[in-house]
Structure formats: structure tokens, C-alpha cells
Amino acid sequence: MILVCGGVKGGTGKTTTAVNLGIERARRGAKVLLVDADPDQESLTDYIANREERKAEPSVSVIQVKGTTTSKSLVALSKDYDDVLVDCGGFDSVELRQAVLICQAWIVPLNPTQMQVWTMPKLKEVLDGANAMRGDAQLTAHLLGMRLSTNSLNRARSDLDTVAQEFEGFGVLTTVVHQRAAFERAEALGLAVTELEKASESDRKARDAVSMLHDELFGSLRVTRRKGGADGR
Ligand SMILES: Nc1ncnc2c1ncn2[C@@H]1O[C@H](COP(=O)(O)OP(=O)(O)OP(=O)(O)O)[C@@H](O)[C@H]1O
Ligand SMILES: [Mg+2]
Fold it and tell me: How is the chain split into domains, by residue range?
């Protein structure tokens, strides 16, 4: 499956979502490719370079794909992998528009603060633009509650539902990811939060959220490799 993490606002957690999901997917046995499709930064590339330097297992491949041939490149690359996870920049980019033309899932990490909700019309324009070209394979964009406050009175989840009801073509994932120190700690080590040792109670909640997100998007079974894949399996 080609899965895109994209939005039109910076710092919402797109790279964090892509890298944690990608590593977790690889840990479950899938052949995963992470795609850095952010034309302005190389955060995903740097994250995985750090992981490689530290020799963390499993090793996960990362490649940079940019520009007007992004769709074509992603489709070609996807033939050699079970799953391709694409990390786009935090703005309306050629890469995002190209990726959502051909992906099977589009995840929009969003904390429904007013400033983030204001990006919804632009996101809808991107989605509608893609769907105008996708024929029968219409795409739903999945809002992911990301970096939500751990304050139990926080109404963010129901606010997300309200946003999705207002914008046709958008749904809300059941999983929510709270703001937790585990993500920054894992980032410094080139790990997913699911790989952290000596996990605190809060770390375990972060781990459970990523695990649940994985299962919600990919199903909870371990991957059975397709026959005849590119690695000769
Ligand atoms: N759930 C979380 N809890 C705590 N910190 C988080 C969480 N998600 C992301 N962060 C931190 O927030 C910062 C921004 O996250 P990230 O780089 O993933 O956002 P982004 O949407 O990819 O940003 P950009 O638009 O610049 O590409 C990072 O330092 C990351 O560690
Ligand atoms: Mg990013």
C-alpha cells in the first residue's frame, strides 16, 4: 500500500507519524520503503541516517522523491515493496498533490486548534483536485488526532469529528496520538517509540498509540510476503 502523511501546515507530526508507522510496519515483517518527499527539509532522511549509524534493527530503506514525476516514481517503487510510506512537507506542494493522486491512504495529522482547522479548505481543495483525476478510486483523507493534550478534559477528538463532518471526503481515525516526550526521545535515537527501552507509563502509552495506529491502518496480522517480490522472496 502507498500511504501518504501530508498536510499544509508545518510541525503537525507528519514525519513523526511516517517514521514511527514505517518502522513499526517493518518490525512486523513487511518490506517497507520510507519516501522523503519534502522539498524543503530532509528530516526523514536524517532520521533514518541516524538509525543506520546506530545500527538499529530492522534496517529501513529511505529514498528522496521530489518534483513533477513523484506519482510515477512512487508507483514504480511500490512494485518492489509491501508498503511505501511517503512524508510530504508542511505546505501545498507538487509532491503532496502528486502523491495523493496515486496513494491508497492519505493521513493528515491534525490537532484541531483553530490555526490547524483553518487549513481544512486548502486540504479539501487538494483532495478534490486528486479525486477529480482518480475516477472510481476515490480517496478519503483520514484525519489523525496528533500531538493532542493529555489533559482528560481535552475535547480534541470530538472537535475532529465535527471538522470531518463539515468537510466531505474526510474521516477521522479511531487512534489518537497524544503529546508525549517519548516521541522526541525516540527521535534522538533514530527509533520508533515502540522500540524504546526502560519505558515509563507515558512511553508505554505512546507505544500503544503507534501500535494501534499500525493495526488500524494495516490490520493486526504479521505480514506474509507476496511471492516473487523484488528481493527474490
Ligand atoms: N505526539 C508527539 N508528542 C511529542 N512530540 C511530538 C509528537 N509528534 C511530533 N512531535 C515533535 O514535534 C516536532 C515536529 O514533528 P514533525 O517533524 O514530525 O512534524 P512535521 O509535520 O513533519 O513538520 P514539517 O511540516 O516541518 O515537516 C518534532 O520535534 C517531533 O519530535
Ligand atoms: Mg516533516
Answer: 2-218
